[in-house]
Amino acid sequence: MPDSATYNLSLPNKPIDKIITTGLFEDYINCPMKCFLRASQEKEAEDSYTIWLKKQDNSYQQSEVIRLASKFKEKDITINPSVSKKLKNVDWFLAIDLTTQIQNLKTQIQVIERQPPELSGSVAQFIPIRFTFSEKLNRTDKLLIAFDAFILSKTIDIPIELGEIIHGKSQSITKVKTAELKNDVRKIINKISALLSDSSPPELTLNKHCSECEFQERCYKIASEKDDLSLLSGLSDNEKRRLNNKGIFTVTQLSYTFRPRRRSKHHIDKPERYHHSLKALSIRENKIHIVGTPSLKINGTPVFIDVEGIPDRNFYYLIGIYIRTEEGTIQHSLWANNETEENQIWSDFLSILSSIKKPVLIHYGGFETSFIKKMRDRYPETLNDFREIKILESSVNLLSVIYAQIYFPVYTNSLKETAKYFNFSWSDPLSSGLKSIIWRHQWETTQDYMLKEKLIRYNSEDCQALSLLTRNIIQITKQYLNTDQNFKQNIIHTNSLKKNNTQSKWSAFKSPVTGLEEINNAAYWNYQRERIYARAGAKSKQIQKRQEHYQTKKIKYRVEKVVIWEVSPYCPKCNKMGIKKVTTNQRIQEDLIFGKNSIKLRIIKYVFQVYSCPECMFEYGIDQRFLDVRRYGWNLIAFCIYHILGLYIPQMAVKRSLERLYGFKIDSLGRIKEKAANYYTETRENILNRIIQGNLIHVDETQANVRGQLMYVWVLTNLHEVVYIPTENREGEFIQNLLKNFKGVLVSDFYTAYDSVDCPQQKCLIHLMRDINDEILKYPFNEELKKIASEFSNLLQPIVKTIDKRGLKKYFLRKHLKEVDRFCKYLQKTDFKSEIALKFKQRFEKNQNKLFTFLSYDNVPWNNNNAEHAIKAFARIRTTITGVTTKKGLDEYLTLLSICRSCEYQKLDFLDFLRSGEKDLAAYASNKKKGEK
Question: Where along the chain do its domains lie?
Answer without folding.
Answer: 1-226, 301-483, 562-672, 680-762+864-932, 779-849
